[in-house]
């Protein structure tokens, strides 16, 4: 895949996901000049796949500065834009179709629960575990309940139908704004907020990679299981940091693939194949590792950067989702929701397989923006 970089050059994907439309993988910036570039894809990260240094040579020719060169650049730009828009459209339609099914069965929190390892729990326990996931995330980030230090403004990036936004707004007495690509989710989230009398909570359709907020607006930047949908992880992190207020907290809870060992250059072929299948079902670009997120945050000189693998604490979640899908209510809801939701349901055993293989990691990454 190719995308246009901020400097006007072209970023060419070099990862093993390059056959995928939305890899967002390690990239090499190629300026619009005739020269050789030798670069490591260290921090332009969509997935951790290669440690090799990459050399790209652009051969000098008169067409490079001619109309032919301009046409090629325009074609590249159009292709990149089309790929991104196709991904965004797929994500929006997937959640437009599936959110009602999820709410009917699981309620308004569209994320994993936090469980004690090897626990045997019921559906009501699962809903409690989803609240516990929020509380444990706040605890891990050392977010204070003190009336002076608690957040007063919150953004929920990839808000679903607003479960986290409403919970956090009520917990802290804060103003919360949620963004999602799904018009159905935004409308439903607003309906639920209005029904609960939460006038300080609002939702809108917006792109997490181009957030409609000024710099430094939010004391708490919250991303609960939305990072996996971002085709450009660098831009995603940049936006989280940009909208965070000085002294503000950033919390990212997301699906990652395992970290590579020092001797590895990429994931194993069977691992890549499994992630490809999951990506196809859930409209995901290529995955990255927890270590990749940490490196991206470190590049911003943020404070108190912490990460942890919570895979053991979410183990009961996907078996429970499958069990709920096999009930009469689950089956009838799936059949009425459309093919995208059905395909997502059929891919659920792949998530369990990924966790059991140690390939998929459920990660939390938190940090603070330095105070002025």
Concise synopsis of the structure shown:
This protein has 372 residues and is of the alpha/beta class. It has eleven helices and twelve strands.
What does this protein structure show overall?
The protein is an alpha/beta fold. The protein contains eleven helices and twelve strands. The protein has a seven-stranded mixed sheet, with helices on both faces.
Strand order of the largest sheet: 8-7-6-9-10-12-11
The end-to-end span amounts to: 39 Å
Rounded mean pLDDT score: 81
User: Which structural class matches the secondary elements?
Assistant: alpha/beta
Features:
372 residues, alpha/beta, seven-stranded mixed beta sheet, three-stranded antiparallel beta sheet, 11 helices, 12 strands, 19% strand, disordered N terminus
Blueprint (SSEs and pairs):
Blueprint (H helix, E strand, L loop, with lengths): L1 E3 L5 E4 L13 E4 L5 E4 L14 E4 L9 H40 L16 H18 L12 E5 L5 H10 L2 E6 L2 H13 L5 E5 L12 E7 L8 H11 E14 L11 H14 L7 H9 L4 E7 L7 H9 L2 H10 L1 H8 L1 H10 L2 E9 L4
Parallel strand pairs: 6-7, 6-9, 7-8, 9-10
Antiparallel strand pairs: 1-2, 2-3, 4-5, 10-12, 11-12
């Amino acid at each position: 895949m190719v995308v246009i970089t901020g400097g006007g050059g072209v970023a060419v994907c070099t990862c093993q996901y390059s056959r995928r439309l939305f890899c967002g993988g390690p990239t090499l910036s190629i300026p619009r000049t005739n020269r050789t570039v030798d670069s490591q894809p260290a921090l332009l990260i969509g997935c951790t796949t290669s440690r090799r240094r990459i050399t790209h040579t652009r051969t000098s020719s008169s067409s490079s500065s001619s109309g032919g060169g301009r046409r090629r650049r325009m074609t590249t730009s159009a292709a990149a834009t089309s790929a991104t828009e196709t991904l965004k459209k797929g994500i929006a339609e997937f959640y437009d179709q599936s959110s009602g099914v999820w709410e009917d069965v699981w309620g308004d929190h569209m994320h994993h629960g936090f469980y004690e390892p090897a626990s045997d729990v019921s559906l009501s326990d699962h809903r409690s575990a989803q609240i516990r996931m929020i509380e444990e995330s706040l605890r891990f980030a050392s977010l204070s309940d003190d009336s002076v230090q608690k957040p007063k403004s919150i953004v929920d990036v990839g808000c679903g139908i607003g479960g986290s936004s409403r919970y956090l707004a009520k917990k802290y007495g804060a103003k919360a704004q949620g963004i999602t690509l799904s018009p159905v989710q935004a409308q439903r989230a607003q309906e639920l907020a209005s029904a609960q009398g939460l006038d300080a909570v609002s939702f809108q359709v917006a792109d997490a990679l181009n957030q409609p907020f000024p710099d430094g607006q939010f004391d708490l930047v919250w991303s609960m299981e939305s990072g996996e949908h971002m085709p450009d992880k660098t831009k995603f992190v940049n936006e989280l940091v940009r909208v965070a207020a000085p002294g503000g907290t950033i919390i990212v809870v997301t699906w990652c693939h395992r970290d590579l060992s020092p001797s590895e250059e990429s994931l194993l072929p069977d691992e890549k194949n499994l992630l490809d299948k999951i990506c196809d079902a859930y409209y995901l670009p290529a995955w990255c590792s927890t270590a990749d997120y940490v490196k991206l945050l470190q590049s911003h000189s943020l404070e108190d950067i912490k990460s942890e693998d919570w895979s053991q604490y979410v183990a009961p979640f996907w078996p429970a989702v499958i069990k709920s899908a096999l009930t009469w209510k689950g089956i009838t809801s799936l059949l009425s929701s459309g093919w995208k939701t059905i395909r997502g349901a059929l891919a659920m055993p792949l998530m369990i397989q990924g966790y059991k293989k140690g390939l998929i990691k459920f990660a939390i990454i938190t940090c603070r923006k330095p105070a002025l």
